[in-house]
Amino acid sequence: MAATKRYDVKDLALAAEGTRRIMWADRQMPVLTAIRERFAAEQPLAGYRISACLHVTTETANLMRTLKAGGADVVLCASNPLSTQDDAAAALVAEFDISVFAIKGEDNDTYYQHIEAAVDHKPQLTMDDGADVIGVLHTARREQLGDIIAGMEETTTGVIRLKAMEADGALAFPVIAVNDARTKHFFDNRYGTGQSTIDGIIRATNVLLAGKRFVIAGYGWVGRGVAMRARGMGAHVIITEIDPMRALEALMDGYEVMPMESAAPIGDIFCTATGDKHVISRAHMELMKDGTILCNTGHFNVEIDIPALRALAVETREARRFVEEFVRSDGTRLYLLAEGRLVNISAAEGHPAIVMDMSFANQALSTEYAVRHAASLERRVYPVPREIDEEIARLKLATMGVTIDVLTADQSRYLASWDEGT
């Protein structure tokens, strides 16, 4: 480890275990590995400073290694107080010489001190999972905005915030919405979050899902994935929605659809996946039965009205690790998982590496794209270029040993023509 590196991690003695797990994840991330090898040869990010605010996991570690291989000077901080894997953070510092500011379970003040430390790096490129670095730059560090070439945003909630900033004319630099790449949200959000959310719930509680009424708030890509996996475990899945098209899709997919007020008295497990606040309110919690489990797999811990839950309780205690028990005045209990934060990465390990391979390939290639096209990018939110998205899909198929058909010249001409009918 370079003695001059600044960092704040739990314990550097964890580095050896972190390195073993980073290498395990790397073997399941062949697309990112291929990009890292090219980056090392071509150095497309040489001389650029990057501040990344992401979940500090083994998969993220391999993205940081890739950016560094491309020549970037990288600093990483956590995008959630509970999502850090302390051994991965230690390994990045001790084995890979990358500055990291992240400790699992850090308090709110420390969390924001770590974001400030990342911003102190004076980045030219940002990489967010929830837009926290961008938020600090646009409020407390506006003097640094002129140095930023572009940002990358990893999650739905962050993209929503950034598009609102763009609409208000407040966005000071271009941002690429990595979350919206098809190879990200179709797979990461649906298959990655779907599996890891169920994993987090089971690790935290050890409950049997079979036969339970499992209520999912929101039927976006994350909600679809959680619903698919919960049904696969034998749960009776109920969907709550505000969007009529998504509600109709959930119904046609074979799920029961109803308002949260109707689901509240009958559900056994509730999981929010909307990106909005107070989706589960005090009024809903007052209707819930004894033993109900509440959790969230959206980015911020506002989807469940936690202050209202605390006000409703006459007693609280830790029932298990990541499980807090709230006793109501009538003696009945509600259980909140992982402080209402992302249950999949707080109580489990987050997405499997095989899907993060595509998500982080999008991050790496979008960063390269931003550098190459900096002069032409405006202060708005951009989609990941389609050619990047499709190239990642092609690479992923190739690494999985899958080949697909290719249009013949005659087929291509037919699809491009209008004069050949029946």
What does this structure look like?
There is one protein chain. With 422 residues, this protein is of the alpha/beta class. The protein contains 17 helices and 15 strands. The protein has helices at 15-26, 30-42, 58-69, 86-94, 108-119, 132-139, 156-167, 182-205, 221-232, 244-252, 260-263, 282-287, 306-312, 343-346, 353-372, 386-399, 409-416; strands spanning 49-54, 73-78, 99-101, 125-128, 150-153, 175-177, 213-217, 236-240, 256-257, 269-272, 292-296, 313-320, 323-328, 333-337, 381-383. The strands form 2 sheets. The protein has an 8-stranded mixed β-sheet. A 7-stranded parallel β-sheet has the order 3-2-1-4-5-6-15, sandwiched between helices. The radius of gyration is 22 Å and the shape is globular. The mean pLDDT is 95.
**Biggest sheet details:** 8 strands, mixed
DSSP summary: helix tally: 17
If strands are numbered along the chain, what order do they take across the biggest sheet?
9-8-7-10-11-14-13-12
Q: In which range does the helix fraction lie?
A: 40-55%
The chain-level mean pLDDT equals 95
* Category by helix and strand content: alpha/beta
Shape descriptor:
globular
| Distance between the first and last residues' Cα | 70 Å
Question: What is Rg?
Answer: 22 Å
Total beta-strand segments: 15
Beta-strand percent range: 15-25%
Assembly status = single chain
Q: Ranges with pLDDT <50 over ≥5 residues?
A: none
